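Exercise 7b. Backbone tokens:
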């Protein structure tokens, strides 16, 4: 029998509402709607501290209307209605264009819920065209004293919302479903629920959305949070067991691998030896390896992967090395060839396969791959194509795997019979994320950096407080160039469209997540033209690099930069990973607040790689006490990638660990927070492991099996994901 949670929203709420919910939140079923839990709770009788609101942050707040005024616009027809709302201390302005009728609703003294995105105009914080729902004062006035008190103190759920579907509309949909919700099968076994003092599943769902007291939603959240952790761990451990059930031929290092180790000009670090031993043991066992190797830039991840590829080649197997960009694929090809030496590289026939190859080159690469002649194939997304086949794919290496979607990672894995999978990441992952999001992966860490790595100074160039500092940025770059060094200048856009929207790597104008009156983002084309005419950089060779250039153009530009024939490279994040130019000392990131913590850390890692001290300048117009500025400040404060990974996690307000960009869906963690729930996650994992040992197919727990299958549908099968 189907679960009530699987009922379509079109049936429960009507087709029109269901379409809006699917477009706004990706919801299709009753279960997905009920799992859209309140962000927080307010009360009709309390106000929200406006001083805690941050610029650029979508908010839903409870406040009181203080005043309303209307004035004519000077330069065009129509009027502006402005209402001020207050929490008794701070003031926030509501602005409406050509909507004079709202004056009848927004009467001074009325309280309500207001939703919008916090902006600023002439130093005053405001919500432009916010959605709102006003509390009915007559409703409270008609009640008795005790009834009115309860009405004022009953928690009001405030939901994650969009401009087209505010919080109270979400609440009305939830209320409609709750009114007819039948008993729900509980996925948590009775004994587990009783031992932990948890609510019944249906009771928890009702109380999280319709609490009578704070105690109701606290206990409901505890129940649902444990259930989420428990089901997720079962899903991940079940997937791990399923993959390990299919075995392949053992891959054992031989003479080539030993000769390669002996030829290295430096000894392996202790970390490289330890991780290499773990990988060798798994390759030899025949049980498919599924391992993440994480470590800072320069810690030797590629060398570890190459030693694994040599072990596979010893048994006649092939390895696919998947890189996110053509620039990086080309660099990996040269790096691997150089480490192997010309003789061994030729014997293994290290082959490049990208979308930019000529027809003849592509034909030769496809033939070498399909015949088994190429023992190591380095490529981009082109490796995922239907025309690409392998004779004996024994190992898949995925570099900077967070740049690939779940389906793409699966597509390359399925080109072999139970191949080993090794994913590499220079973005350190906190332990709780590893346990929560990719519990089907074993994790190895390379913490030891190579000797002689130069220090990097990091500075925030805060133009909001010091607009004159921008001139000093280019003077500082000129000083480094005068020392014979090179520099990067990174921009968030290739160019800016006439509309003011930045144009990304796919030629599509993107709507910036900033206020309408904010200046356009820095672009490669504009910055290139400006720097070529800048007096401090006169005579310098300045070129561009971005994703819309052809593979040949990008490769030629990177070669010229690496050989010192270009002084300054103005680029997008196409240079974020893997680009290795030892003479580059300066990294300037314009509009740094438009990048994530991990991106900024990766960009900084492009300099200071050759014994030359590095300097990273993060240029931003973001104001202090905004989330965007907090990200930039966090990166500038430390070079420790593991510390930054934790800071990044704590800056994410929605617990978006997988991220829409990685999983193809919205955040898959609902109530679970990896920064807070480490003990809960560990408890759930231990319980899930014991349950699967006793009942691998969950035959005795059909409700739990159904919940796990539903969780898989929600996209939790990701190897790894990040914002």
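Sequence design result:
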């Amino acid at each position: 029998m189907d679960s009530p949670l699987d009922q379509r929203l079109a049936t429960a709420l009507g087709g029109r509402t269901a379409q809006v919910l699917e477009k706004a939140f990706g919801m299709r079923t009753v279960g997905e709607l009920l799992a859209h839990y309140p962000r927080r709770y307010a009360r009709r009788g309390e106000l929200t501290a406006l001083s805690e609101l941050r610029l650029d942050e979508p908010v839903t707040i409870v406040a009181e209307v203080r005043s309303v005024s209307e004035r004519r616009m000077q330069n065009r027809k129509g009027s502006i209605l402005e209402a001020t709302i207050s929490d008794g201390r701070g003031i926030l302005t509501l602005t409406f264009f050509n909507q004079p009728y709202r004056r009848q609703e927004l009467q001074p003294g009325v309280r309500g819920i207001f939703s919008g995105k916090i902006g600023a105009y002439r130093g005053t914080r405001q919500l432009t065209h916010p959605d709102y729902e006003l509390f009915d004062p007559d409703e409270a006035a008609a009640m008795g004293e005790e009834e009115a008190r309860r009405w004022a103190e009953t928690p009001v759920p405030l939901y994650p919302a969009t401009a087209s579907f505010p919080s109270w509309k979400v609440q009305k949909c939830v209320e409609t479903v709750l009114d007819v919700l039948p008993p729900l099968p509980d996925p948590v076994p009775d004994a587990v629920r009783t031992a932990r003092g948890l609510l019944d599943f249906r009771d928890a769902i009702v109380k999280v959305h319709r609490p009578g007291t704070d105690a109701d939603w606290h206990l409901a959240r505890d129940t649902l949070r444990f259930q989420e952790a428990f089901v997720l761990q079962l899903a991940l451990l079940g997937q791990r067991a399923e993959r390990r059930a299919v075995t392949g031929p053992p891959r054992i290092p031989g003479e080539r691998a030993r000769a390669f180790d002996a030829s290295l000009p430096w000894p392996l670090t202790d970390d490289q030896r330890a991780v290499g031993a773990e990988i060798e043991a798994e390759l030899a066992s025949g049980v498919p390896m599924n391992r993440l190797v994480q470590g800072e830039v320069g810690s030797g991840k590629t060398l570890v992967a190459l030693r694994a590829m040599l072990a596979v080649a010893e048994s006649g197997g092939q390895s696919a090395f998947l890189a996110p960009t053509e620039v990086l694929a080309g660099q990996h090809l040269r790096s691997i060839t150089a480490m192997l030496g010309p003789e061994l590289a030729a014997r293994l026939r290290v082959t490049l396969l990208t979308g930019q190859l000529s027809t003849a080159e592509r034909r030769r690469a496809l033939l070498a791959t399909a015949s088994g002649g190429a023992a190591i194939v380095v490529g981009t997304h082109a490796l995922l194509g239907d025309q690409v086949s392998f004779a004996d794919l024994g190992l898949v290496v995925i570099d900077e795997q967070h740049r690939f979607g779940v389906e793409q990672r699966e597509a390359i894995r399925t080109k072999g019979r139970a191949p080993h999978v090794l994913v590499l990441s220079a973005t350190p992952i906190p332990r709780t994320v590893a346990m929560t999001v990719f519990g089907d992966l074993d994790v190895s860490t390379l913490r030891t950096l190579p000797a002689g790595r130069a220090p990097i100074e990091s500075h925030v160039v805060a133009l909001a407080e010091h607009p004159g500092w921008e001139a000093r940025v280019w003077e500082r770059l000129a000083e480094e160039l005068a020392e014979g060094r090179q520099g990067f200048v990174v921009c968030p856009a290739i160019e800016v469209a006439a509309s003011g929207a930045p144009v990304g790597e796919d030629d599509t104008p993107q709507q910036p997540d900033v206020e309408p009156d904010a200046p356009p983002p820095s672009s490669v084309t504009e910055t290139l033209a400006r720097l070529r005419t800048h007096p401090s950089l006169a005579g310098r060779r300045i070129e561009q690099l971005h994703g819309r250039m052809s593979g040949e153009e990008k490769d030629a530009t990177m070669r010229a930069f690496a050989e010192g024939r270009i002084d300054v490279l103005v680029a997008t994040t196409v240079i974020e990973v893997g680009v290795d130019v030892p003479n580059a000392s300066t990294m300037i990131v314009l509009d740094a607040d438009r990048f994530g913590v991990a991106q900024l850390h990766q960009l900084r890692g492009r300099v200071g790689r050759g014994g030359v001290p590095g300097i990273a300048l993060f240029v931003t117009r973001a104001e202090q006490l905004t989330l965007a500025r907090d990200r930039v400040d966090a990166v500038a404060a430390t070079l420790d990638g593991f510390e930054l990974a934790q800071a990044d996690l704590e800056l994410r307000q929605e617990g978006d660990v997988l991220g829409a960009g990685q999983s193809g869906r919205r955040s898959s963690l609902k109530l679970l927070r990896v920064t807070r729930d480490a003990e809960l996650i560990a408890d759930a994992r231990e319980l899930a492991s014991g349950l699967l040992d006793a009942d691998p197919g969950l035959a005795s727990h059909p409700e739990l099996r159904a919940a796990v299958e539903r969780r898989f549908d929600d996209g939790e099968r990701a190897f790894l994901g990040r914002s």
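Instructor comment: The two ends are 38 Å apart (CA to CA). Residues 13 and 341 are 66 Å apart (CA to CA).
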